[in-house]
């Protein structure tokens, strides 16, 4: 019963109710009938106070599942256009979840929101997804993000020469996916890097 009430509290942003439930030992990782944790529901319904409370609670932060739930909540908030919820989550989770969101950002505005909370972009722009060894550029291509996303990532320092677990660059992946414009963009960026390397040598 506690878990059900906690889910409803997340939707309605009844902060006193959430506080009492957490103090009573309610599970912040309990899922609804649709497989959503309270933090995801709060992000979907733009309940900023609930998002901030849940994402920053000690019980939530101490759990090994927190990072993946935070990443999903960030994507949910981005999907429904709730920048205040994104900011509330990133206040406490930028370092842990920021790299994941860079991989999943669907547009430039989402990228910009993440970047506001990252103090050292250079340290996370090279983050690779463990299963596929995708760089942020591979992820953008695989998810068919707009060309503007790849442009932005390149400006941030993403490496167009990086290869995934199948020894493919993001440009190779773009060609295979029929994304000709993005493949050309990434090829030019890679050629520029190689030209600068030769000149420096």
Would you mind describing this structure in some detail?
With 201 residues, the chain is mainly alpha-helical. It has 2 domains: 1-93, Serine Threonine Protein Phosphatase 5, Tetratricopeptide repeat (Alpha Horseshoe); 125-201, Ankyrin repeat-containing domain (Serine Threonine Protein Phosphatase 5, Tetratricopeptide repeat). 66% of the residues lie in helices and 0% in strands. It has helices spanning 2-12, 15-23, 38-44, 48-56, 58-61, 66-79, 83-104, 108-115, 121-124, 136-142, 147-155, 170-176, 180-200. The radius of gyration is 19 Å and the shape is elongated. The mean pLDDT is 84.
Please tell me the CATH architecture of the largest domain by its name: Alpha Horseshoe
> pLDDT average, as an integer?
84
User: Level of helix content?
Assistant: 55-70%
CATH superfamily caption of the largest domain: Ankyrin repeat-containing domain
| Separate helix tally | 13
Helix vs. strand class:
mainly alpha
Q: How much is the radius of gyration in Å? A: 19 Å
The CATH topology name of the largest domain reads Serine Threonine Protein Phosphatase 5, Tetratricopeptide repeat
The 3D shape can be described as: elongated
Low-confidence stretches: none
Distance between the termini: 68 Å
The tally of beta strands, per DSSP, is: 0
């Amino acid at each position: 019963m506690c878990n059900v009430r906690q889910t409803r509290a997340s939707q309605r942003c009844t902060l006193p109710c959430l506080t009492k439930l957490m103090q009573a030992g309610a599970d912040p990782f309990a899922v609804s009938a649709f497989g959503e944790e309270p933090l995801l529901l709060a992000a979907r319904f733009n309940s900023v106070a609930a998002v901030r409370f849940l994402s920053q609670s000690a019980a939530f932060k101490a759990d090994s599942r927190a990072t993946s739930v935070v990443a999903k909540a960030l994507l949910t908030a981005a999907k429904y256009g709730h920048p205040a919820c994104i900011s509330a989550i990133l206040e406490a989770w930028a370092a842990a979840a920021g790299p994941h969101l860079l991989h999943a950002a669907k547009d430039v505005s989402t990228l910009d929101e993440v970047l506001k909370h990252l103090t050292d972009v250079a340290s996370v722009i090279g983050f690779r997804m463990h299963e596929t060894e995708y760089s942020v550029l591979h992820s953008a291509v695989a998810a068919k993000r707009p060309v503007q996303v790849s442009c932005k990532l390149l400006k941030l320092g993403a490496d167009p020469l990086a290869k995934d677990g199948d020894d493919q660059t993001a440009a190779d992946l773009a060609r295979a996916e029929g994304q000709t414009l993005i493949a050309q963009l990434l090829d030019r960026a890679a050629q520029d890097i190689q030209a600068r390397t030769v000149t420096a040598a």
